[in-house]
Design a protein that fits this description.
Reverse transcriptase zinc-binding domain-containing protein, RVT-Znf, two-stranded antiparallel sheet, binds zinc ion, binds 2-acetamido-2-deoxy-beta-D-glucopyranose, elongated, disordered N terminus, membrane, transmembrane, mainly alpha, transmembrane helix
Length: 402
């Protein structure tokens, strides 16, 4: 099995991620957004992309993880599976747009007067229409009805009260016979809600009065209003739709360390792998079954190599960091662990924000240089003395600092 080598021919890891990113954007934009592509095809494409990113070697970080936004621990690749999901929502949204011949035809063929929101899925519905109906639940969380007189909304079945229908609010056990077949127009007059005549509870009456009537629209329209997104003024936006369907995760604490302003890309990616604990140190290679001639750390040549050892238990690495820290940060934290050092930087009060930023840049640059030194020793048989490494870090920090 090939290991993702330091000197892997051609593009670097970061370069390969960027290339895949643009290929995926093109696929998403020109293909997936307009037709439903089978899931198996999508997974195949994603598999090819992942293989390319890892250069045919060990996939140290799963594809799903890479596809998370940077804040949530990914590198911000777009998941084609989620793009496909969003395309399904887009299809359902298009169906809801009144007036298109396609939706009129679908409605007359399959709905036949039944209400879109409660219609059960028949076996003989076409595949796209089944897809639309299965995506109703998610769709309704992202849309809102802009009403003029509420004329077209079914009083009982349509979700017109903050995204819910009367049927859902009152429950199916309620006898809705008094409301069946009515539209919202029946409880609007002179541009205001008149729920009194229908004996709603006071609370429900109040909720109904909260539903906005917009006299300026020509007729009722659906507007695209997913939670947390305000752009677009009601127009469909694929980006917010993607955001709606993609999986969400907690933010990572080390975001500034990895993706903060100024850090060179190659350093971002070594910091990223370090934060996730996915650098392929010799202990991990052994666990993946890769034959490693010697489990020892090539810097100190005494202890076994692991991420914890390299960053920063190893006395060689530690000497490089401690020297800089003394010189530029006015001290050295006690713990020889990169997370603890990050915490120490964050806890150093009395400095400007730019101080912490520079300190994090310095730490990330040190990580990259140590990792590079380790790779050069292993794969190229070259070795640089710590003094020169220190010097190289200094000049990189100088270039990156504000
Ligand atoms: C689908 O099947 C139902 C009965 O289950 C039938 O009433 C309807 O006509 C069929 N629709 C189409 C489009 O074939
Ligand atoms: C949309 O419908 C398809 C089934 O056709 C389903 O696999 C998918 O999960 C649905 N998407 C959402 C966001 O509910
Ligand atoms: C170092 O790694 C080797 C091989 O995995 C193992 O046999 C040895 O016990 C390890 N030494 C220490 C100190 O952990
Ligand atoms: Zn060591």
């Amino acid at each position: 099995m090939r290991v993702e080598g330091w000197q892997a021919a051609g593009l670097s890891f970061g370069g390969r991620i960027e290339l895949v990113q643009s290929v995926i954007s093109a696929i998403a934009l020109f293909w997936l957004q307009s037709i439903m592509v089978p899931l198996a095809t999508i997974r195949k494409i994603e598999g090819i992309c992942a293989k390319f990113i890892w250069h045919g070697g060990i996939h140290a970080i799963s594809w799903e993880q890479l596809c998370r936004p940077r804040k949530e621990g990914g590198v911000g690749l777009r998941s084609l599976v989620s793009v496909r999901e969003a395309a399904g929502i887009k299809l359902a949204w298009r169906f809801l747009q009144d007036g298109s011949p396609w939706s009129a035809w679908m409605a007359s063929r399959y709905l036949r007067g039944r209400n879109f929101w409660v219609c059960e899925i028949d076996n003989n519905f076409s595949v796209p229409f089944k897809h639309i109906l299965r995506n109703r639940t998610v769709l309704r969380t992202a849309i809102r009805r802009k009403m003029r007189e509420g004329g077209e909304m079914d009083l009982w079945l349509d979700p017109w009260i903050s995204g819910q229908s009367l049927l859902e609010i009152l429950g199916p056990q309620t006898d809705g016979v008094a409301y069946r077949g009515l539209t919202c127009r029946h409880i609007i007059s002179g541009g205001v809600w008149r729920p009194e005549e229908y004996r709603f509870t006071a609370q429900l009456g109040e909720e109904i009065r909260q539903v906005q009537i917009t006299p300026t629209v020509l007729s009722d329209v659906w507007v695209w209003a997913p939670p947390g997104h305000s752009e677009g003024a009601g127009e469909f936006r694929f980006r917010s739709c993607y955001d709606l369907v993609r999986p969400h995760f907690d933010d990572i604490e080390e975001y500034d360390f990895v993706w903060g302003k100024g850090l060179a890309r190659k350093m971002q990616l070594s910091a990223y792998k370090l934060v996730l604990g996915r650098l392929l140190t010799r202990d991990r290679l052994l666990r993946f079954g890769v034959p490693v001639p010697d489990p020892k750390c090539v810097l100190c040549e005494t202890e076994n190599e692991s991420i914890g050892h390299l960053f920063f238990q190893c006395h060689v690495t530690w000497s490089i960091w401690a020297e800089q820290s003394r010189r530029h940060l006015g001290g050295v934290g006690r713990e020889r662990d990169f997370r603890e050092i990050l915490k120490w930087i964050g806890d150093c009060r009395g400095h400007e924000q730019s101080w912490a930023r520079r300190a994090r840049l310095r730490l990330a640059a040190s990580v990259w240089h140590v990792w590079r030194e380790r790779n050069r020793r292993i794969y190229e048989g070259l070795s640089t003395p710590p003094v020169s490494i220190l010097h190289n870090i200094e000049s990189d920090v100088l270039v990156m600092s504000p």
